[in-house]
TrEMBL record:
<dbReference type="GO" id="GO:0004497">
    <property type="term" value="F:monooxygenase activity"/>
</dbReference>
<dbReference type="InterPro" id="IPR007138">
    <property type="entry name" value="ABM_dom"/>
</dbReference>
<dbReference type="InterPro" id="IPR011008">
    <property type="entry name" value="Dimeric_a/b-barrel"/>
</dbReference>
<dbReference type="Pfam" id="PF03992">
    <property type="entry name" value="ABM"/>
</dbReference>
<keyword id="KW-0503">Monooxygenase</keyword>
<keyword id="KW-0560">Oxidoreductase</keyword>
<feature type="domain" description="ABM">
    <location>
        <begin position="11"/>
        <end position="102"/>
    </location>
</feature>
<protein>
    <submittedName>
        <fullName>Antibiotic biosynthesis monooxygenase</fullName>
    </submittedName>
</protein>
Length: 106
């Protein structure tokens, strides 16, 4: 489970996916499989969460990594490049963005 903390020394990545309701479940299945079989086993992976809006037109993914280089290495792997080609076919767009936690509230 991701832990959001300003003091944590880690890399936060938020990725948003835009798709149609007709491809939402297929994309969610693809992302769930990618995390279960590959991404969660990569060096530096800490935690992640997948969220879908009620219209099934957007998926938001929140992931945490020990270092930004760990996330970049995962993205550059042949396995993830193959998976991203399939993911691209299921959505209009997706964009991973690296963030720093500035504040967190309980």
């Amino acid at each position: 489970m991701p832990k959001i903390s300003q003091e944590a020394a880690l890399q936060t990545v938020i990725t948003t996916f835009e798709m149609t309701p007709g491809t939402c479940q297929d994309l969610m299945d693809e992302l769930t499989e990618a995390y279960a079989q590959f991404i969660s086993k990569q060096p530096g992976f800490i935690a992640a969460g997948l969220h879908v809006n009620d219209a099934q037109t957007r998926i938001a993914n929140y992931s945490q990594w020990q270092r930004r280089e760990d996330f970049q290495a995962m993205l550059r792997s042949e396995e993830m490049r193959m998976r991203n080609r399939r993911i691209t076919q299921l959505c209009r767009s997706f964009e991973p963005v690296m963030y720093d936690v500035v504040a967190a509230f309980d």
